[in-house]
Amino acid sequence: MKVLAEGEGERLAWMHPDEARRWMRDNKSRALVDRRMDISEAVRRFTRDGEYFAMGGFGHIRVSMNAIYEMIRQKRRNLIMAGKTSVHDVDILIGGGVVDRIDCAYAHGHELRGLSPCGRRATESGRVKIVGELSNAAFQWRFKAAAMGLPWYPARVMMGTDTFRYSSAMIVEDPFTGSPITLLPACYPDFAFIHVHRCDRYGNCQIDGTTIEDVDLARAAKRLIITTEEIVDDDVITSEPGRTVIPHFIVDAVVESPNGSHPGNMPGLYYSDEAHMTEWLRLSRSDEGVKEYMDKYVYGVEDFDEYLGLIGGEERMEYLAKLERLEVPLDAPWSRRGK
Amino acid sequence: MSYNTTELMACVASRVLENGKSIFVGTGLPIIATMLAQRLHAPDLLVVFEAGGIGPKLPTIPISVGDSRTFHKAVMAASMDYTMGMAQAGLVDYGFLGAAQIDKYGNLNTTVIGDHDLPKVRLPGSGGANDLGSLCHQTITLMRQDKRRFMEKLDYLTTPGFLTGPGAREAAGLPTETGPYRVITQLGVMGFDKETKEMTLLQLHPGVTVDDVMENTGFELLLGEVKETDAPTIEELKLLREEIDPSGIVIGK
Complex ipTM above 0.95? Predict the structure, then answer.
């Protein structure tokens, strides 16, 4: 195959497929063993400074906030984040000093809420480095390549653009059509956290609603930590095996984290907490504000339960559940700025 | 009934969307326009969101293109793999995008203002935009028009329009018979010349002159058969204000 162009981005988290197969053979237990532990142990055992990682969900939807706060508390440093629609997750991790490089499809934005003051300030000042650019489909299919044990995956995206130029992909002449086609390098994150609706103690998971990239990301990650709203009896899983989207034999740890996506949305259970998001967006306009937020919500609490108490506890979560069910109107304080 | 330019853009954009087609929708104003079209002339517009929501009945404006509203009463809650695969396989008619900068060939920048490695303003990046611009049959862009946004040379080319002109998309390897279709701004509606693929003025909003548009465009805009936009109707405005965005999150108060 003739190589027509090569992106300038750093090719990170790539492995030869045979090396990946050895990893899967030697490190993933096929046994139905109890994988439950608390978040502090999971972060201590499965995450290391300087590693490349991904968060499941969609940046502020079904995201493992418990794990994010714990990585900040344990002072993980110099991590490279897969910016695959990274929104509140990456912003908080930059603010917490954990992430200093981003492999970037989407970061520095809060979707409808506008740009992220914290993430932008870090990248514009050079504190955070963008090691590569790519598109969302490209990230999805880099995970798919890894999930399938392939060195790359072909796709008809990014061609002709600077997004390709700054990516770690290649464009080759497709031997079937004779036309150029993009080859996306497999992406094997050192670790990933994925937040799910329910799983059993072994790690067999169900997700309600969209799975986003998580089915492939789960198989791509070298170490996979599941945080879950609920741990259910074994027969909840085995009575409906067609609903299992992540199986136990690729899972390394299971952490029970009720309300664990707050302030993000957990489809079917609770909507995003826009008052809390507004507080973060306001405070994160300065480094002092970021410190104030971290002191209050991350360092000032023992664990996620204490954090939930701080944001209004059961009453607040009940309101967010009503909002999710469309029983109360959305109030978005950030939308009133400057209007 | 008086209206603001955001409401005008939402109404004009919604009228472009045909019933029975499929559309891949980005954050913000494109969602509002899509919801309006669904409630008026295009009840069978198949809406696709990149995170996996397909065919939802959007009850209220989603904050994220991945939040639970994007698969409310949907026909399918799928995955990024599925929706992007759908677009690559030719099942998505329109990609609906916003941008910070655009050039005469409809190429878009949503990544960075200034130098990539030392940015003046760092923007989110491609997200799904490059994929929509590469894979959907046609793309529609909704954005503000001024000389800093409509420019001869982009600071960064995130999402492909017609790239460098006729034949460039095909030469690059992108699917054939694809590319930009409409650009909708607070001043008017632009299309692209069939031969040269250059941006062409097609429509002026009420009270806007050709000169107004030219003064707010940083490249040579071609003139088509320019028509005047019909002002937003009371029905459109009521739906926008009372049903689609009652808190004024996108359209303002």
Answer: yes
